[in-house]
Amino acid sequence: MWPGTRERPEVGIFTQTHATRRPVPWGQVTPGDVVWMKWKGGPIVARARVQGFRQFQNCTPEQLRAATLGFGLHRVESYWRDLSPTFFGLVI
């Protein structure tokens, strides 16, 4: 189960990963921008204003997980277990 619920999803953090290309909005997001979040294949669940972000090339699950410390996603073992060994990672 992903962090949050249909009624009150956790929107404190947003991540994207991709093994072969940079995630969108790589290089296109700045603090103050509005982003829309949704679960893969699902409806939009939240709108948030960017406070900060980190972009990682050759990222490992451990590096991305460290960037989510303090948020519910940090505790979702299945998310971290299912990631590729290295990838492009984006945390907003």
Protein described:
The chain is α+β, with helices and mostly antiparallel strands and 92 residues long. It has one domain (15-91). The protein has two helices and five strands; from the N terminus they run E-E-E-E-H-H-E. The chain has helices at residues 61-66, 77-81, and strands at residues 15-18, 34-38, 44-49, 54-59, 87-91. A hairpin with a 5-residue loop joins strand 2 and strand 3 (44-49). The longest helix is centred in the last third of the chain and has 6 residues, at 61-66. The chain is globular. It starts with 14 loop residues before the first strand and ends with a strand. The model has no long low-confidence stretch (mean pLDDT 83).
Question: Quick recap of the structure?
Answer:
By secondary structure, the chain is an alpha+beta fold.
Task: Give descriptors for this structure.
single chain; 92 residues; alpha+beta; three-stranded antiparallel β-sheet; two-stranded antiparallel sheet; 28% strand; globular
Distance between the first and last residues' Cα: 21 Å
The count of strands amounts to 5
Low-confidence stretches: none
Q: Nearest-angstrom radius of gyration?
A: 13 Å
Q: Estimate the global geometry from the Cα principal axes.
A: globular
- The secondary-structure class comes to alpha+beta
User: In this structure, how is the largest beta sheet organized?
Assistant: 3 strands, antiparallel
| Strand order in the sheet with the most strands | 1-5-4
User: Helical percent range?
Assistant: 10-25%
The sequence of SSEs as H and E is EEEEHHE
Counted by DSSP, the helix tally is 2
The domain count comes to 1
Quote the average pLDDT.
Answer: 83
- Proportion of β residues? 25-35%
